[in-house]
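FAQ: What does a multi-protein file look like?

Like this. Sequence, then tokens, then the next protein.
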Amino acid sequence: MHRDSGARGRPVQRWSARLALVAGIAAVVILLVFAGFKSIALLGAGLAGLAVSGASLWWALTRRGIRRLLAFTLAAVAPLAVLALYAWAELLWVVLVFLALWALGVSVGRAALSSDIERAGPPELRTAPPERPFLIMNPRSGGGKVGNFHLREKAEALDADVLLLDTAHHQDVVALADKAVEDGADLLGVAGGDGTQALVAGVAARRGIPFMVISAGTRNHFALDLGLDREDPSTCLDALTDGVELRVDLGFIGERAFVNNASFGAYAAVVQSPAYRDDKVRTILQMLPDLLTHRRGPRLAVRVANTAIDGPQAVLVSNNPYGMGDLVGLGRREVLDSGTLGVLGVNVDNAAQAAELLTEKHAPGLTSLTAQEVVIDADEPEIEAGVDGEALTLPTPVRCTIHPQALRVRVPRHRPGVPRTMAPMDWRRLRKLALS
């Protein structure tokens, strides 16, 4: 969505566009003037080094022993060899200046183009504060954030009913949340990991009452996409007294809700291993060769509307799509109310396809789709899955769906907010803006 910038914002936006154009043109001029026809060779060498690194990483992940060591060595040496080639041709400084100017032009240009984009996020609704909030807190989550930030005491000072989980014994948080609603709770909240957040969020959606996220987990992905403060989870409690309500989507895998994503394939199989928690790196390196080459684990088949993904090594189904435009967008969703699932499938069978993942924007080994329903089947009766970080084993076929705006989330009115959506680089549009 675009809007007119204010009178004070337009000059800054135009001058930013002009700076981006000057930087981009200067980068190309320096490359052509000082490298001439060698600039084509420089570009080819850089792409070749990137391709060799990608292929070497594939070999490293699908082999063991001395071959893995040699592959990792080649992946590290390839870019160094390219830099050495640039230095031998006495053009290293040209490449570095070109990259710096080009990066400056792209970053400033995208910022200028993004000034017309409204901040992402669902509409905020002013609603009355809850009268009987019920909060579930996990004292071990996030390395003990509940205790470190005195969340229980602060919540109880705001008249919230707090249940501190007994980490020595398993407790059914769904049953606890249901009972709290039956006893009169008009808001459910969780200070814990995303897996616990999802289970209680499912109860809140089913019961039609608001849900509150307290960012006391380790990664807090859901809190990030809600624009909450992940550094100080106690600020999330402001929602009890000065909050607004957001309507966001909720994903479901069967009857189980998920707020972030469900993963299948190689990653899901690795995290299921009992050895994973004790030694993550060793377990990954030991299991990946068989998983990536289909010597172990079920062969997946994904159906998304009229599209089929056959035999992917990894599949990620997310509650709204993840950003794919650049590295900054990875791991973050621009919106939570699009009413669609995001689907990412990785299908790489050889080193050449692995290299394409690094060198091509639309590599055939990476499938990115959106849908309202996704079915994951396999050649085995059960498959392993990671649902919001929780390891599960599910009967096939697995059906993932999305319930648009099913969850009412209460958040503080004043919060860091979701980072502004960055516009894709468009040199033609940038030129028009600079000359306006």
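And here is the next protein:
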Amino acid sequence: MGGRDAVGYLCDHCAHAWTRPVEDDLDVYDTVRVDLPDVTLYGTVWQVDDDRVQVRGVGGEWLRWVERWRVIVY
């Protein structure tokens, strides 16, 4: 997996900071949450590449490639 090993977060309201590891054991059909800058998506892993994941929305409403570090197993 190229790129990041961990993702950092910072709360705008209280300045609390924390990190989480990037998921390295994603499998097809895992249920995941995707944290994007403007929206949080929930769906199913459809394909896994080294640094990106294809996620399918509930009922096939959408299919989107996202950077692997944005995905959290739900």
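Q: Is there any per-entry metadata?
A: Some entries carry free-text notes. For the entry above: The CA atoms of residues 7 and 20 lie 5 Å apart.
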